[in-house]
Amino acid sequence: MDRQDDQVDGIEVGDDGIGADTVPEIVPPALTVAYARGVNPGKWARIWSERRPDDELRLIRVDLDEQRAVLASGAADVVLARVPIDHDGLNTIALFEELPVVVFAKGAALGAEDTVGMAALADEQLIMTPLVLEWAERAAALGFEASAAPLTDDPEAAVELAASEVGIVVVPQSVARLHQRKDVEYRPIADLPSIPVVLVWPQDREDEAVEEFIGIVRGRTANSSRRSAPTEQAAAPAPQQAARRRKKPKAGSTQGTAAGTSRGAQLAARKAKQEELARERRKKRKGR
User: Fold this and answer.
1) Cβ atoms 201, 113 nearer than 8 A
2) How far apart are CA 171 and CA 146, in angstroms?
3) pTM, rounded to two decimals
4) Does 274 fall in a domain?
5) 106 and 187 fall within a common domain
6) How far is CA 241 from CA 116, 236, 245, in A?
7) Residues 51 and 31 both lie in one domain
């Protein structure tokens, strides 16, 4: 397990001597995220630092056999894990899937096609135990002979040996990319299933920091939340409801003013009065 966090060097002594004999306080990170070799947590870590600049997110890289162990020991709060992993007692979110690939020396015959079938690998020397799904079952079905003991269990060292034409390495594509060299190539293995990558965390571990990271991984924005709005906000009427509750303005009035007090209503009243006066004058002329 590789730690990716910085170490504290100590406290600088000031002019007043403060700090000379003190031990720096180690503040635990807000969240520790373990990730399988080849999985890149960088994007999610950057979003975390933008949203929570005062809360440390610690990253540790783990191998397949450590994925479950770091959760059980408390060394990590969540794991960006590669299947297979025992899901018992864990919450799981599927993230993406990877292609299984074979890594070999540059210029080897395996590079003649865009993909490789397992049958083409029957006579190749396996440098390490394949880190892919269903290899053993497919190899047995194809009649592969039992492979010799692996030369190494370190993917980086295995790729280096592949470059020396010692044999082949079968790993997820992200691992091949992580240890890519100019003197090796890799090709997808067409008849093996893809390898899921998942986010896992203990079912009894539910807190604000874990929820925040889950939201980041799922693509929720900083303004979105799984939590319900405060009660007082929920009790407020929706804008559409408030609009429907407003009384319709009376004829001849303008919305937002009392009926009959608008400029239009005043002009109409003045015109009516002038017409009434004109009728009275006409009546007087006829009576003369």
Assistant:
1) no
2) 19
3) 0.67
4) no
5) yes
6) 63, 10, 6
7) yes
